[in-house]
Automatic annotation (TrEMBL), chains A, B:
Residue intervals of the Pyruvate carboxyltransferase domain: 6-259
Source lineage: Bacteria, Bacillati, Bacillota, Bacilli, Bacillales
UniProt xrefs under PROSITE patterns: PYR_CT (PS50991)
GO annotation (BP), single: L-leucine biosynthetic process
Keyword Manganese: yes
PANTHER family assigned to the protein according to its UniProt record, in alphabetical order: 2-ISOPROPYLMALATE SYNTHASE 1, CHLOROPLASTIC-RELATED, HOMOCITRATE SYNTHASE-RELATED
Keyword Manganese: yes
UniProt keyword terms in alphabetical order: Manganese
Molecular-function GO terms, alphabetical: 2-isopropylmalate synthase activity
Record protein name field: Nucleoid-structuring protein H-NS
């Protein structure tokens, strides 16, 4: 498998933060950065660059939700080869918060959006690009996008300055054929853009789908250590560093992070292949219903949950 | 994806028995059979048909290690559409134990062997075939087999009566390219045989590899409910029944089994994607060293374990 072109973007803090409300200690993040840097991982997405002014409940979450350059300089006083990335959401970012790249700790700013907001995402991308950052646009929930919407988005993207366009399997519902179909379509319509992929593990296909995409030429591969990410989690960083044919990566520093930080963390926080997430994945749905189930007393009532999601509203009520 | 040709062989009791010493209650097995039958699963491998006379410590394991037809008739008084299968190991089966198929509860007998014993496996297959059973030969540890050994084995298999030949990824070390390579080779050399696949989940590729094999024409797909199987476990039955394009399968009865039996069982017994198993998988090794680690006090010491497996014996001793 030819994957020399690939770069790994570790999203442990950013996507994993959706699991624990970004409650990572500075020590945790510093150790993660050191480990990823030693492992040869190309990018670390260290959080969101949203504005606390534009989000409710901002005082209840960790600092990785609203990255601040002064803070980041204290966290990582000495940068290694691993670049730093941040994600922003449409409507939650204050553009005045973003320093020019040469004054910032960040190298890459990624904009996540649904298909209907690609135009807004590209406006932001233009601003970040003008400030000197590498940029990506991450189109979420692609499994629920209709062909004509995608074609329209492609036209705008093609004419934009964005460096990389992401295929995002938000619901963990895609298999290798779906990934192949999407990558081929993106390549066909966006011949001037590099591609990225972000997967979720609802059906235990996150790693496999990432490998398939890599082999088809996708360059930026999102992953997280021990798969930590919302709900079923992501493609595990440890599997990519050991399996990609790319001599610069090494597994040992990632194992060290897992042993010292992720195994104890997984005792307290939950993510991964868990049946309700498998159910939303196979039904091609957002995991929010399963996330709600998992914090309820009925967390293991898989059949009732499945019935609820698959019974049309017109079904006969169970009891009078 | 065209997978109409596929049949699922659920190995929960047989391969899962390697986790809990076949300590499944009769109620558990009866419920599993009912659930699999309702889900449309084609075969249930209900254990090993080895002889207690030929195995040490036979009195310390559950009855599913040494299936007996009188016992089976009590367990499953009424068979549904789901056929019953048993596995035998070379040198551990007493051929006189095997009834003619019309007097037996079993439909399928599978013979597991390493490449060097394919001749012995085929001798057994001939006997089971003559007794009226469907037969398979399951060649284990294919990732460690040299080309010329395989070619030699193919010749014997081609001329044998065996119905199905299995590709077995014993170490969970294969990726989709490896599976594709093996399936193409098997198809080329065994044009007169049907194929099967048995995967392990050390690198979270068991389901994906099974799908890839199915798409390439492999017919019998091994799986187990909630992935229960030795070490990292197998391809999860629930994922196959929901994802294979084959209208006869249904997910709900499998979810019911998971909810009532597998979730509580997983609290007591351990299998699945666990870092030491990932390490033996990526190193293409038998998981026995990782299994020993997992029952020791050092069960989460991943780095030390990795170092031990990757340091040549000639390395400088750590201390004098």
């Amino acid at each position: 498998m030819k994957t020399n072109h690939c770069k790994i973007v570790d999203c442990t803090i950013r996507d994993g933060g959706l699991v624990n409300n970004w409650d990572f200690s500075i020590e945790f993040v510093q150790n993660l950065y050191a480990g990823l840097n030693e492992a040869g991982v190309d990018y670390m997405e260290i959080g969101y660059k949203n504005s606390p002014k534009l989000l409710k409940g901002a005082d209840q979450v960790g600092p990785w939700r609203f990255l601040n350059d002064d803070f980041l300089r204290k966290v990582i006083p000495q940068k290694g080869n691993t670049k730093l990335s941040a994600l922003v959401d449409i409507g939650r970012v204050d553009e005045d918060d973003i320093l020019p790249r040469e004054e910032s700790m960040l190298d890459l700013i990624r904009v996540a959006c649904y298909i209907k907001d690609v135009d807004k995402a590209l406006d932001l991308v233009q601003k970040f690009h003008d400030l000197g950052y590498e940029t990506t646009v991450n189109i979420m929930a692609l499994s629920n996008v209709m062909e004509h919407e995608l074609i329209e988005a492609f036209q705008m993207i093609r004419e934009s300055v964005v460096d990389v366009v992401y295929i995002v399997d938000s619901y963990g519902s895609l298999d290798h054929n779906d990934v192949k179909h999407l990558v081929e379509k993106f390549k066909q319509h966006l011949p001037n853009k590099r591609l990225g992929v972000h997967t979720h593990n609802n059906m235990q296909l996150a790693f496999s789908n990432t490998l398939i995409a890599a082999e088809l030429g996708v360059e930026l591969l999102d992953a997280s250590v021990y798969g930590m990410g919302r709900a079923a989690g992501n493609c595990p960083t440890e599997l990519l560093v050991t399996h990609l044919k790319h001599s610069k990566y090494s597994l040992r520093p990632v194992l060290d992070i897992i042993e010292r930080f992720m195994i104890p963390l997984r005792e307290k926080e939950e993510w991964g292949y868990i049946i309700p997430y498998m159910i939303t994945g196979t039904l091609d749905e957002h995991p929010r219903s399963a996330m709600a189930l998992r914090v309820s007393d009925d967390k293991d009532k898989a059949v009732e949950f499945y019935d609820r999601l698959t019974t049309p509203e017109t079904a006969i009520p169970k009891s009078k």
